[in-house]
Design goal:
This protein is an alpha+beta fold. The chain has helices at about 5-20, 55-65, 95-110; strands at about 1-5, 20-25, 35-40, 40-45, 45-50, 65-70, 80-90, 130-140, 150-155.
Length: about 160
């Protein structure tokens, strides 16, 4: 495993910026993983998503906050496949100001979300939680460097 260099961080941020959805894997109480697709935003390397208050994801995270996720960019040619996978921890966002900031950022990236929320200007949104994901490890997939090429980075070793 290598340190997350500035160039690698820039690659990760580029993928986060241009991706739309991530597959979020949580751990069920019976020990099996559960992967679901969620829309996300990011602030630096920290990711945020809105999830259902009574969702299995929320229950899983309350039981065990370790998560994994993938973000893949659209491609037409396999030689252009790019994406990331990550491991980290998740927590529920607290505080009205932080929830409002995240809510507005989600609405900015996904304006169509407003049709599902009674009052988008007021957070928390009924029936939803905001999730913050702190990555600790990234694997960057980049087929431009060869079929199946990946690099593994430890966020704690960032320069």
């Amino acid at each position: 495993m290598q340190q997350l260099t500035t160039a690698a961080r820039d690659d990760v941020l580029d993928i986060m910026q241009h991706g739309r959805d991530m597959t979020l894997a949580t751990i069920r109480p019976d020990g099996y993983p559960q992967a679901t697709t969620v829309s996300y935003i990011h602030d630096g390397l920290t990711l945020y998503a809105a999830i259902g208050l009574g969702s299995q994801k929320a229950a899983n995270i309350q039981h065990n906050n370790k998560v994994s996720a993938t973000i893949n960019l659209d491609y037409v040619d396999w030689r252009q496949i790019r994406g990331i996978s990550l491991g980290g921890s998740a927590e529920f966002v607290q505080g009205a100001a932080e929830m409002a900031r995240i809510g507005q950022a989600l609405l900015h990236k996904f304006p169509e979300l407003a049709q599902f929320i009674e009052d988008p200007a007021t957070a928390p949104w009924p029936g939803m939680l905001f999730l913050r994901i702190h990555p600790v490890i990234f694997s960057v997939l980049d087929y431009r460097a060869g079929f199946g090429h990946t690099e593994l980075y430890d966020v704690a070793l960032a320069t």
